Amino acid sequence: MKKKADGGASAGGQASQTVHLARHEELESTKPCLLSKSLERSYASHALLRVTSRKHPGLRLYARAHPLNFSEAVRGISMLRSIVAGALLRETEVEVQEVPEEEAELQEVVMVLMDRYLSKRDIWHLHLSMMEDKGQVIYGGFEHNLLQHIPNSRIQTLKGAEGPMRAGCVTPRTKVVFRSGSANVIVLIQVSSELLAFSLSGRPYWEVLLDCLTQLVERSFKAPGTSRLGHYVRIVLFARAWRQAPRQAESASPSCADGTPRRRQHHDPASPSSQGARWQFQDLASPCSPGSRVDFDLVTEADAEQEEPQEHKHDDFYEVFWEGVARALPPTQMLTAQIRKVLMRLRESRRSSQDPKCQGWHGVTADDLAEASRGNVLECLNMVLDHLDMHYLDRSLRITGQTIILLTAGNGLVRATSRRIYEVTDRRFLSSGPSSSKALHMICVRQPPLHPVPWIQWPGGPAPGGKEPAEGELRVRPSWIDLSYHSEVSFCPCAPAREWARASFLNLERLKRTGGPLHVPAWGEDVCAFAARRPAPTTPLPNLRVEEASREAGRTKPELWEELRIPEIRPYFRVETADESCAVHRPCKFTEYIMQPTRFSYTDVESEKINTMNDLIGCRLEARTSELVVEAAPPAGGAAARPPGAAGAEPWLADGRNLPKALHHGRVRAADGRIEWTMEPRDEGLHVSYGDYTGEDKRSVELACKYTCLVRRRAWPGPGAPSEEEAEGLPVETGEWLRCRRIFHLPMRPHWNTLDGIVSGVLSMPPALPYPVEPSVSSSEDRCPGWQLRSAIKQHLYVFIPMDEEAQSHQAILSSALQALGGGIAIGVDPFQVMEDLSAKALAPPLPVPSEPRRRAVASFEALVSGLENLLFGESSASKQGGRGRSLGIQVVPEGSKFTVSRKSCTVYTRDMGVPSAHPRSRDWFEVFYDSQFSPPKPFILVLQWLVCSSVHLVNFTLRLTRIARDNGFYMNRMPIAQLFPHPAPHWVWSGCRETNFDRLGFSAPHKVNLPTGLTTAERDRLSARLLQCWLQPPLSFLFLFSSPQLDFQVIDLEPDPPAGEGGPEPASAGWFREMSEGGSDQPSRAQKRDQSRQLFQRLKGWVLCHREGCCLIALREAYIDWYENRLVYAEANDTQASQERLYCLNELRCTFLRETHRVLSSA
């Protein structure tokens, strides 16, 4: 090591040094850069060092002189081999020089997140880490930047003031963009009547749509550069079908030469000609003839004024075609071939035909299809939003971000059936829509119209091309739609300009075939065959070509496929402008309180306040569409007078971490800035204030829309299995449409005062799973109020089942209970409880479970619990402290008939865990709820709930626990909470329909089998016994999971009344808040809310049984049977073969269940 000979100095006056450059691997150290311990005295703490090469003076790498980056084992400087190789640096000596912070300041950073779920809280902490210690150095081409937050990431862009950079530092002024390589992508394919028409290329539009889908799959889902498993993809086909006309109208309808019925017009109930006839037909050519164009989208002012009746007009259909990770997608040709089969069957379908091959799409025929503009687009988007809003239940730990892609043969015009459905959709997208920056990608395979698009038209609203509403009113051109056009044909440059100009100006539906030959460019060919016969035009038409160029600019380009390959996550962090800081709002509602952080032991009070503040900021960013606003200058009286991040600005020091002064306090805004939280550390504690400037009344907040539709999930039968057409004579066929009722509403927000108290440690984590049922407890008590935290709380439900069939079987237990009960069993009675009660009375026979398999299961479970405690508590666990450490206190019953369990819980701090990601400075924690005892063959249940815990820790925990369970002979099955225990809907949508009183997943609706009516109580008990025996024995071999002989876990959704008086802020532990409102309140009283919630229960009478591997569930209720396919199993298959095997297994189990259940019911 030597000083530079010419004594050159930097702008800061520091001379450069020539040092040895070494390379190290990630196995040796995960730090990107290590410095020799001998250099520590040469530079100030946290100084920025520039690393350059004499042969490449323009190449600049940077390192930070952080105390933890110095090592005795390093001579000179050592950098990761991947970083040095990416920079093409081959020298063994480099120059190191201390430089000012501004030199390495980044203007923009684009980071791609891989294979992990990062909540907004996690992303905020990740962004916060970039700004710590004067800004951490970020390296391009390095996949493990900030390894403690995200184990796998990739820097896509590093841009400074002078252009791209190899390394740099992030400041509050840096634009940080996060993209996801593993997002939740929902692909919607609209099946409309336009798909059967012919495009300009001479092909039907459904072929053009499949070409677009092929490019989407190949260039976005299967393209290299995404995560290991890729996106989680769900493909849904949806359509609207007009209800069928009377038979006399069908028989009188004119037909084409090939027998195809004429295409009917949209039914107008207000038209005099429509009285007495359901359908009206017009004399058009067959949809399979390319010689005519149907005027699908003719818009008139009369259409805009007509309100479409909601009853008896149409049915909406949804089919979940495929679901799973992108890596498990079937070959693209196979996938498109299956969709092509559906569309071709639609093309050949006849409404009047009795031939099963002409019944189209499971009963929906081509005659029934609605036009794209009149389809169920808005309703479908609300169905999707229902799924996305429930992301916190059964939270996937490898998915970050949400994207909706809509493929349609429409042209950007959407006609809503009512203003209300559009208003609900618009409000939901703006308040809590998908987390991607572009919420909805609408890709049209037709030509754009001549009027502005996208355009939403509702009855009485502006017609397309008309005057748009004023600012503040409901917009006809929503900002959440990103519209693109897929080229149906490339225009031929060698054809006569007159013909192609005409084609580009006229609407595609109105284009008529001329008398001469129709010259169509060869599809996919570079040279048009027409060019050899006719020369190119000599007279250019510049104005027409400019118009065509502008149209081409809106069509799908490679940038779109790249955007869908790694979708951008919606920005949440920005610096406030001077105009915003001066804006004054008149508050409609204001709340404030003081938090006293007590969750973590601390000595630096100020640091704990700000750390807690960052956790509360993360919870608000996660719970709704919000953004964190950093003030351009500190408030009056602040410690720093310079802009945040400026050179020389005094940083804030907390727990050894340097942060800019601008992050002393936080301001989170939502709803376009009309809702605002402000958090600021004060002497008395962390001050939290909430301002609502929306001025919304009760009617606006409680906006809702009722909806009924038909859904199904496509069955993928395995080799030799019966097809859907062959599955006849069953109570519920695999191809049957299931009716689904929904009420679309704005999402409810958590109780912020309670949430803040839990995060700060003032309040304990409440349970959110309604389990177990305790007959001795009054049903009016809300024993699991955790659901009121809504999207802030994440949950996982795990069930441990012995792999030994002798130790897991429940058939013998049920047989003994039935023998004692006389052959019948009342609804919901737990057979295990029956055996325990008989044992307490000394009336029970010996337990019909082999003693040796039970002892093996108990010994294996004790080893499992020991491994679980080591994971949860690390070195402080009881097994590592000689029995004196922390323990879960689970009782094991090796023999006897003691089966009653209670719920226990403990708080787990990741800094104490025995997982690789644990570190002393971690502030992550989660709650574990579990059974108090294990008594085989009854399963053992464990629930995870968390508010502020990174998926990095949870993935390490679940992977290791799964391995421990498997090694000790147990299945660790994850059960779908959203299907078993959906959270209650807001009280203002409650009605007499239980189905709509809970927020359910429409695309995961269960198959329902109605039970016979008119049976006596004894007959009903015997039928329940026969059904349970049928399901517990082979070939199904299901197991009891839950049972309830009563309605339990009543829903009580009550907010605390505000205290009287106008005193100062109260601590959150008191449960009070101070509310100041202008005008009277129209909210329902506590008594009214209590009256509304009197009859809503989370647990019904009956049993829930599960497959031993957890892939299917059965719920037996008083009047019906529900068959569930565990929606979580689709994410478990990591390749195409495993996915196909899983789908085949599900289809076989479903057919077996239907066959066996039908056999029992037919004999009832």
UniProtKB/TrEMBL annotation:
Record-annotated Vacuolar membrane-associated protein Iml1 N-terminal domain positions: 110-457
A biological process from GO: negative regulation of TORC1 signaling
GO CC terms of this entry: GATOR1 complex
Location of the region described as Disordered in the Swiss-Prot/TrEMBL record: 249-278, 1053-1091
MF GO annotations: GTPase activator activity
PANTHER family in UniProt: DEP DOMAIN CONTAINING PROTEIN 5, GATOR COMPLEX PROTEIN DEPDC5
Protein name, UniProt field: Vacuolar membrane-associated protein Iml1 N-terminal domain-containing protein
UniProt source species: Alexandrium monilatum
